[in-house]
Predict the 3D structure of the following.
Amino acid sequence: MQTTPSYLARNEFLIRRLHSLSGLVPVGAYMCVHLLTNASVLDSSATFQRAVHQIHSLGNLLPLVEWVFIFIPILFHGVIGVVIIRGGLPNYGSYKYTSNLRYTLQRATGMIAFVFIVWHVFHMHGWFHFEAWKTNVAEPLRGAQFSPYNAASSLGVAMAGVVYPLLYATGILSCVYHLANGIWTMGITWGVWVSPAAQKRADHVCIAFGIALAVVGLSALGGAVRLANDEGRRDDAEKVEARMWKAKTDSGEVDLDAGDHKRAEHLRKHTAPK
């Protein structure tokens, strides 16, 4: 009796290439931008606040942009990755040990990265922007810790302790390896580098890219940990952030009466005359 192939089997060629492409654009590209933005905290709290404001200046369009260009592609890449992992095993009889080690690490870091990203979004943003959800669910579970209106100081609070920096270091390194090695395998999948010599050159480029991105990511984490461990630095960050947002409200760029009462309370607290 002949069985009908599954949808995945019938469209395996297309799905695998969409999975490969989504890992580079937009997921990989966004990760690079995200780490570079976070690393701006090393310059100053004001620099980081300006970078965050540029993102959140999209206003009501921001959730749409996040879901269409970030969250849905990440979910697609992650879910299809799990499907691929469940149906594939390393073949030690046909490939060199290093290739199989990379094969295994690619899948292991992919799983770690997917879990990390889901948790990271909850930890910093609470998944959803509904006030009732944030107040009654996310915040009691130590989620929704990041505030775009006091970016550096809230980042410092979120990274307090030892456990969170260790979790973030593991997640960042897993994401970086998965992207850098994924670019190398993507080049083979798409026929960009097929000869041994071309693959070796691409290997060197991907290793250099991975090391550079890991340095950026861990440096950003170091900046956040420094804020977490320095109460005075965090207090200074809050004052800088409040002054920046006060200037924007005075210019009319931001309306304190638009419904964000927490933001209004924060700004008035730190900019009221003494």
